[in-house]
Specification:
By secondary structure, this protein is an alpha/beta fold. The chain has a single domain (about 1-380), classed as Rossmann fold. Helices cover about 35% and strands about 25% of the residues. The strands form 3 sheets. Strands 2, 3, 4, 5, 10, 14, 15 and 16 form an 8-stranded mixed β-sheet that branches. Strands 1, 6, 7, 8 and 9 form a 5-stranded antiparallel β-sheet that branches. A 3-stranded antiparallel β-sheet has the order 12-11-13.
Length: about 375
Amino acid sequence: MRDTPLEGLLLDTLRRTGAITFERYMALCLYHPEFGYYTQGRERTGAEGDYFTSSDLHPVFARLLARQAAEMWVCMGCPQHFTWVEMGAGRGLFACDFLSWAKRALPEFAATLDYVAIEPGPRERQRIQVRLASLGLEREVRLLTNVEELAPTAGCFFSNELVDAFPVSVVTRTGGHLKEIYVIAEGGKMREEHGPISDPSIAAYVARYANQLEEGHRVEVNRQSMEWIRVLAAKLTRGFVVTIDYGDTAERLYTAERPRGTLLAYRGHTASEDFFGTPGESDLTTHVNFSALVDAGRAAGLDLTELTTQERFLLGLGEANEFADVYDPGQTGLEKLQARLKLKRLISPAGMGNVFKVLIQHRGISKPQLTGLKYARSEAG
């Protein structure tokens, strides 16, 4: 018996077609229509999933983002309609927290809000609908399968831990030459082998962002992230793009201290480099090269607002009321303590606060001043 349903399909494919690029393999593991990690309806986040996101920890994450969104609306002159597009809506936790808070604390902004949640998985979309309905918010959100379905719009495109899940090519240097990692079938199992660079754009990416790649070291090439930001730029008539994810600029990301790159498999809150053991049931993920997103955005007409850490971003937003947004009415002293501990995980430099970066880009707005960037020390270089 195979370890996962997808493994048998992959092995059959490899026997018929021969080697495939790691990028193609990763795409099938994550997005195969029936057995992909992100499409089969499994619990991915939270205690029963494989990892925690900021939205899983506490509603204060969405509440502070709602405050920042309202300020963006003001920066745009308080238009009658402001579209907030959440890409990769997952379980719908962020949407519920954001909307509930905005309606209660920011009613003028909430009255203009057109909330769009994009989630490719049909089972996930159904779960989002159920969660929204339980709070009476089912009519407050438009659910779409992909961003291409959205007409050009003004407002903000937002993602949290989305870009790290885009399929990547993996490149190594051997014998002084760049080689790409391919996946083959051998002895009833999958393994990797070196092969030629499959597309000139991959070599161009390495030359631009990782040209000091040492012999035997690896680097990931996330071409899809650059195409993604170009699509958003084409859709955004005026407003902002906010991308939150773990990663860094190229000069800090592609270093000799990471000889194996950043590619990891997550299952049951445990990280490993076992990329072939449980295809379709492990999350495959890489750190985001924010330099590439900044460059691709500029080429497509997006100006860089700022790149900062999640710690500094949330501190800027929470300072005005001393993070009172972390509390709910009627909480006990113990519940308030637990809320503060969860907030600490979001902003701690030793944890999510420093590893996660916040990239803000804009279009059609002259030098926007955002409270979330109050303490920003530019990470963009």
